[in-house]
Amino acid sequence: MAERIRVRGLTIHRPVIYGNTATVLTPKERESLNFPDHTHRWTVAVRSAASAPDSDIVGGADDLGYFVKRVTFKLHDTYTNPTRHVDKPPFEVSETGWGEFEIQIRITFITESGEKPITLYHHLKLHPWSVTGDPEIPSPENAMRMGPVHSWQYDEIVFSDPFQSFLNILTDHPPTPLPKSKRRPVPFHMANPGSLEASKGGVPEFTTEMEKEEAERLETARKAVVAEQERWRATLIEKEKELERLQNQLPS
Hints:
Layout: E1 11-24, H1 27-32, E2 40-48, E3 68-74, E4 83-86, E5 91-97, E6 102-109, E7 118-123, H2 129-132, H3 140-146, E8 149-160, H4 164-171, E9 186-187, E10 198-199, H5 208-249
Parallel strand pairs: 9-10
Antiparallel strand pairs: 1-2, 1-8, 2-5, 3-4, 3-6, 6-7
């Protein structure tokens, strides 16, 4: 019973990434599909932020199943069974297609957490042109030579005042630390156009530098919200004073 008591004043977080990787289908692969207009194979996923050593997979060094019960991906309605429930790691969905669209990602936590599900949104990315600034979508042949396209977002799932039992689970599974700096080549479409750091087949890697940048971004957003709340509070007080003044002017 004591384990259902919340640990007040404590917060604990888990770094995750969500997004997609896409590759161009070869002519032979396209011929084997029931949808000849499909041009890409893609995978959308929720993973731990750290990558396994020497892995060509973005993130995923840790199994998130110890605190995530289910991830639901809501695809475009043109897909068969567009709502995909994934109840065990890896939390990902692979498909083929030709167009980009927004994917809703709903993360449900294990029962012990007592936490409500959270919802994220990711715009499926197939083409590199919107990052490099090139207004032209490369031909399938050129895109195939360039390598996979990656689009990933770093985030931190924060649990405030967790139940003791859930806190025990989290502390028993510490996340793999992020490297301090990049160890891998930068994917061609994420580098500055024409720069030497661009590399075919490079795989994104999240680092402690990115973690720090995200923390700073969240703190800036928090301060902006507090400032906006104070502004509206001051406005409300002023309006209440104005209302009181007008009421006092009314004949009794």
